[in-house]
Amino acid sequence: MNTPSQAPLGFLLHDAARLLRKRFEQQARHLGLTRSQWQVLAYLSSNEGIHQGGLAELLDIEPITLVRLLDKLEAIGLIERRPHPTDRRVRLLHLTDKARPLLGSARKLGDATRAEALQGVSAADRETLVRVLGLIKCNLVEACERPAAFHDSQRDSAENG
């Protein structure tokens, strides 16, 4: 089995993210929401008044997936869909007063989960980690905006060369 330093970067990042989500879900289960619902609330808290399409784009999920999450959050009284002042086809999303204390609890659980994950990591290494991951994200966002540079014909010649 590979040690963490030998694991491919993509696998290591995926595993770390998956375990962070799993631990958060363990900690937050008693609050009665899924991680996806928490994520919607967290993004909405920073982007109140956004329309559904904009929030789906921020979350990088399909609009129909977001609609299902919003329907559930609205049914339990955590979000409101309000009419747009000039476009009656658009609904703007807002948190309710009931959601705000829950978000506070989720943030505390998130802080505790991150503290567990970063146990034994120095402050300097934490800063480096965040800086490097931010750079990796920026690089990949830019790369995803360009056409793929590695096509099947190039792969075939690389394999045969």
UniProtKB/TrEMBL annotation:
HTH marR-type domain span: 6-138
Keyword annotations: DNA-binding, Transcription, Transcription regulation
Annotated GO MF terms: DNA binding
Keyword Ribonucleoprotein tagged: no
Signal peptide: none
Protein's UniProt name: DNA-binding MarR family transcriptional regulator
Species annotation: Azospirillum picis
